[in-house]
């Protein structure tokens, strides 16, 4: 079946306009201003997410997990896979749309409706029944522009702007939280590996002691009890090595989870020097000022407080008069009515004054609720400041303590190593017994463990100090590797 449809010139023009309006601007080769016509989207949505030091988060470059995993690569993978970061990024877009709605209230609203109607009229008289019908087009349009509202729109715009700032700060807070979590997991894995290597080293030393004891026993210079004690020490060292290896494998699994990778993914950690600098611990007062000004958690609370204050004005403006300018055009009748019996056009224009009189005291309670919300936000801001600054003070004290502990463990390691080497030489010359040798071995094992613990505490305290100030970025990670 074929059907032929004829379209006149006016209809073709209307169809063309509708198609051009429906097409995205990019398809027409012109910039798509309808994506953000009021310019409410922050630059962050255009440039991409970035860390406090200005470095962008790049999720396109793949990370070769067959190579030793650097801390920066682990953080990049975690930042790209964390669902909380994606959620907070979407929240910025949502709040941008709310700000756009608030700004749109300053513009007039226009509505146009077109209808194709048919009227049937049936009447009866002495002469008989008379039927008539009429078919035609009905067109109507209206324009409304709010001229005065006693600050309601301005307050809505202020509240939406502050909530957008809060969304940006919340995204930064999620970045900081994710970075802190993966850094902690990374360093715990590094510490577990160092512990495993230390336990393996102790097992090798215990094996050397057992070999030396057997040589003395074979020459008749040592009793069987020395060999049994050395064998017991070797078995204990091998047990500690096996436990340390299990802890290392567990820490790798936790690191894989923190990075958002599939369970069972194999990771390889690099051999990094355990260096530190006293200059990494900044002045406490400058850190406190920095945290109070720039920490994302405090900025979220501060922006929320400003938004809640603006909402008081919004609630009050709802009870104030408003003034609207209106204009309308109707052709061949009015909307939701039948066609006019004659072709006519009606144009109206005027102003409308809206005077809220009584709403059952609902507005009074909205204002009281908004004021109470401000009080709650003020308390939350104060609590955020106290908790953040307290964490900075604690992290600063821990960093100073761990810095001093590192120096002490260096001296302890040097003394324990020299003591064991001396004891081994004396044992080979029959100038020391097995108890002295085993005691020196145990002392070296303790010194190794203290050194590993001190390095772990230093790494954790230094980066926790930067994270507590809310400005943890790639520059801090590069310092860790220097």
Please sum up the structure shown.
This protein is an alpha+beta fold and 482 residues long. The chain is built from 11 helices and 4 strands; from the N terminus they run ααααββααααββααα. It has a single domain (41-115, 135-481), classed as Outer membrane efflux proteins (OEP) (Up-down Bundle).
Topology:
Layout: H1 9-22, H2 43-47, H3 71-81, H4 83-104, E1 109-125, E2 128-148, H5 152-218, H6 224-258, H7 284-294, H8 296-317, E3 322-331, E4 345-354, H9 362-428, H10 434-468, H11 474-481
Antiparallel strand pairs: 1-2, 2-3, 3-4
Helix pairs in contact: 3-5, 4-5, 5-6, 5-8, 5-10, 7-9, 8-9, 9-10
Structure in words:
By secondary structure, the chain is of the alpha+beta class. The protein has one domain (41-115, 135-481): Up-down Bundle (Outer membrane efflux proteins (OEP)), CATH 1.20.1600.10. Helix content is 62%, strand content 12%. It has eleven helices and four strands, in the order ααααββααααββααα. It has helices at residues 9-22, 43-47, 71-81, 83-104, 152-218, 224-258, 284-294, 296-317, 362-428, 434-468, 474-481; strands at 109-125, 128-148, 322-331, 345-354. A four-stranded antiparallel beta sheet has the order 1-2-3-4, with no helix packed on it. A hairpin with a 2-residue loop joins β1 (109-125) and β2. α4 (83-104) runs antiparallel to α5 (152-218). The longest helix has 67 residues, at 152-218. The relative contact order is 0.12. The model is unreliable at 1-23 (pLDDT under 50).
């Amino acid at each position: 079946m074929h059907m032929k449809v004829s379209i006149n010139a006016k209809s073709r023009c209307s169809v063309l306009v509708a198609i051009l309006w429906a097409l995205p601007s990019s398809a027409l080769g012109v910039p798509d201003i309808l994506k953000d016509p009021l310019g409410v989207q922050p630059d962050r949505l255009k440039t991409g997410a970035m860390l406090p030091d200005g470095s962008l988060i790049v999720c396109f470059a793949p990370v070769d997990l067959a190579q030793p995993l650097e801390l920066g690569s682990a953080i990049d993978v975690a930042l790209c896979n964390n669902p909380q970061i994606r959620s907070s990024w979407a929240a910025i877009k949502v709040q941008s749309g709310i700000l756009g709605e608030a700004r749109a209230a300053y513009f007039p609203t226009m509505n146009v409706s077109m209808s194709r109607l048919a009227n049937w009229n049936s009447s009866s008289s002495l002469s008989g029944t008379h039927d008539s019908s009429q078919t035609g087009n009905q067109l109507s349009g209206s324009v409304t522009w709010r001229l005065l509202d006693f600050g309601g729109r301005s307050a809505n715009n202020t509240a939406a702007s502050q909530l957008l700032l809060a969304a940006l700060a919340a995204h930064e807070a999620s970045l900081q939280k994710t970075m802190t979590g993966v850094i902690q997991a990374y360093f715990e894995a590094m510490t577990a590996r160092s512990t495993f290597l230390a336990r393996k080293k102790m097992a090798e030393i215990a094996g050397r002691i057992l070999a030396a004891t057997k040589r003395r026993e074979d020459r008749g210079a040592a009793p069987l009890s020395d060999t049994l004690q050395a064998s017991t020490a070797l078995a204990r060292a091998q047990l500690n090595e096996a436990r340390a290896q299990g802890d290392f494998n567990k820490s790798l699994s936790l690191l894989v989870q923190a990075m958002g990778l599939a369970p069972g993914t194999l990771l390889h950690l690099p051999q990094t020097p355990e260096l530190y600098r006293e200059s990494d611990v900044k002045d406490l007062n400058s850190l406190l000022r920095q945290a109070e000004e720039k920490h994302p958690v405090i900025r979220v609370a501060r922006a929320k407080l400003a938004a809640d204050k603006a909402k008081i004005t919004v609630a009050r403006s709802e009870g104030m008069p408003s003034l609207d300018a209106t204009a309308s055009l109707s052709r061949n009748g009015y909307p939701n009515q039948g066609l006019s019996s004659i072709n006519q056009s009606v144009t109206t224009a005027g102003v409308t004054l809206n005077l809220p009189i009584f709403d059952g005291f609902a507005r009074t309670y909205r204002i009281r609720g908004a004021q109470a919300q401000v009080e709650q936000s003020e308390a939350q801001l104060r609590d955020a400041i106290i908790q953040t600054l307290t964490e900075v003070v604690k992290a600063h004290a821990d960093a100073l303590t761990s810095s001093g502990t590192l120096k002490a463990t260096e001296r302890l390691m040097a003394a324990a190593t020299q003591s064991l080497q001396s004891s081994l030489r004396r044992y080979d010359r029959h100038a020391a017994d097995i108890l002295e040798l085993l005691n020196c071995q145990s002392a070296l094992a303790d010194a190794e463990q203290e050194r590993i613990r001190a390095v772990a505490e230093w790494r954790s305290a230094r980066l926790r100090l930067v994270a507590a100030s809310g400005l943890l970025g790639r520059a801090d990670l590069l310092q860790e590797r220097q």
